Structure formats: structure tokens, C-alpha cells
Amino acid sequence: MVLTARTEISEPRRGLLRFVQRNPTLALGAALLLLFIFIAAAAPLFGGDPINMVPAQRLRPPSAAHWLGTDHVGRDVFARTLFGARISLIVGLAVAIFSVAVGLVIGLISGYFRRFDALLMRFMDSLMSIPSILLAIALVALTRASVGTVIVAITVPEVPRVVRLVRSVVLSVREAPYVEAAISVGTPTWKILLRHILPSTIAPLIVQATYICASAILIEAGLSFLGAGTPPEIPTWGNMIAQSRLYLARAPWTLFAPGLSLALVVLAVNLLGDGLRDRLDPRIARRM
After folding, report:
1. How many domains does the chain fold into?
2. For the chain, what is the largest distance between any 2 Cα atoms, rounded to a whole number of angstroms?
3. What is the Cα gyration radius of the chain?
4. CB neighbours of residue 253 within 10 Å
5. Residue 7 is assigned to a structural domain of this protein
6. Among 124, 136, 166, 174, which one is least packed by beta carbons within 10 Å?
7. Residue bearing the bigger pLDDT, 64 or 210
8. Cα 179 from Cα 176, distance rounded (Å)
9. Statement: residue 1 has pLDDT above 70
């Protein structure tokens, strides 16, 4: 019985070890991302109050009371960094989900129904011709600054990229023999789209969603840095970096924490995307 129990316990560990050995990029990216998700979820437990200002303790170096020091108005940098992870992850995940959902629908329609293809793709091309950061700044400038506005502003430029990806997959799958056979026997269009075409788009969409998430996190930080993102009272890595640039020589710790956190979370999402691409692409998986 003891041997059996030990065998049952060790089998999952061996399986996990084999998975990590075969997919180191995927494992590292997933581990880093899970760490940041835990940090964002546990921010109220470990971070304290991120907006409490104590002017008498402004620009204090790291200490036992303030692990990462304080900023120019006496706010705890550690607490603000933890709460900033929430905004970055919420924006990144929301933009990835919404852009993939909207782009999937438009891409399926554009790729399968030829009469809508030209009109939809010209509209998508016009959106892609505008730099993402400029379009996001314009949308934020026309509305009230909030997290929801930032999500919408970043989602709009990302949708055309998803549409083009889905459309290319649909155009290739639409000519497959099994799809033509389904059409010839009178299968309803919605069944063809859901059963025969949609499954082929899942793998590339998952990979694309990770890159969109990383791009959205960077764009949100850029918008906050420029003062066109979330309200200044909400702690984000972008506005922390913007506020600390004036005190870089005197208090470099105010820039180090948000800058390193931003770099690590974007690295984690990109590693996850590369690992998923290697795992889900049959040609790469076969070579490996």
C-alpha cells in the first residue's frame, strides 16, 4: 500500500517534470504570469493603502516600514506596485478577450461570405493604417478617462489584426473537401461555421491573444505615462514611471519597481505565447 501511494503521488510529479522539460518556455511564462496574477489578487493583503499620502515621509529609501521606499508625496511604492499589477492584468486580459471575440465574428463573416469581404476588409485596413497608440489617445481624449475607456481604446486597434488572422484561416479551410461536402449536402451555414471552420481558428487565436495581451499592457502603460490613460489617483505602472522620472537621480527606487514589473509581466506573456505556438503548431511540434 505504501509503495502504491508513493507511486500515485510521484506519477503527477514526473508528468509535470516531463512537461516542463519538453516545454520550458511555456512553463516559465505560465509560472511568471501566475505569480503576477497572485500578486494582483493578494495586493490588499500585502500592499496596504496605495493612495495614502504622508508628505513628511516623501522620497524615503527602502526600509522595513516601506520595502520599496516612498514616492514624491509619501505614498508607499510597494503598495502602488502591487495594485498597479491589477490594472495592467485587467486591461491586458480584457483587451485580449474582447478583441478576439469581435475579431472572430467579423473574420468568420468576411472569410466565408464573399459579398461582405471587400467592404469589411477595407474598413479593417483603414483602422490598421492608424498607429494603435494614436488611435487610443484620440478615443481617450474624446471621452472621460477610466479603465473601461482605456480597454475600449486599446481594443479597437487590435480587432483588425484578429480579423485578418481569422479570415486567412477561413479562406483556406473553406476550400477543404469536407467543407465542400457539407455544403453540397445542404448543411446549414451556421453548422458549417461552428463545426468545420471554427475549430481550425482556435489554436492561432489562443497564440494571438497572448501577444495582444502583452501589447495592451504596454499601450496602457504608455497611455498612463502620457497622462491619457486611467485617472491619476489610480495606481498604474505607467503613471508611476511618469511621476518618478523627475526624481530619478534623487530617488531611483521609485522607477525601478514599476519598470521591472512591467518588463517582467510582458516577458511572461510573450514567453507564454511562444510556448503555446510551439505546442499548438503541428509543424513546430513535429520538428521538436
Report:
1. 1
2. 78
3. 23
4. 20
5. no
6. 174
7. 210
8. 5
9. no
The residue range of the domain holding 254 is 85-287
The total number of residues written for the chain in this structure: 288
The pLDDT, as a whole number, for residue 3 is 46
CB-CB contact of 174 with 111 (8 Å): yes
pLDDT above 70 (res 114): yes
| Beta-carbon count within 10 A of 113 CB | 12
Please tell me which residue, 15 or 248, carries the higher pLDDT value: 248
**Is 241 domain-assigned?**
yes
For residue 168, tell me if it sits in a domain.
yes
Q: Is residue 22 part of a domain?
A: no
What is the C-alpha to C-alpha distance for residues 189 and 179, in angstroms, rounded to an integer?
A: 10
State what percent of residues in the chain have pLDDT above 70. 92
Q: What is the CATH number of the domain that holds 122?
A: 1.10.3720.10
* Per-residue pLDDT reduced to its tens digit, 3-62: 444 444 466 677 667 767 778 888 899 999 999 999 999 888 887 888 888 888 898 988
Query: What number of other Cβ atoms are within 10 A of residue 243's Cβ?
Result: 19
Strand partners, 70: 76
The three-state secondary structure class of 70 is strand
Q: How far apart are CA 203 and CA 271, in angstroms?
A: 16
Burial of 226 (C-beta count, 10 Å sphere; 0-12/13-18/19+): middle
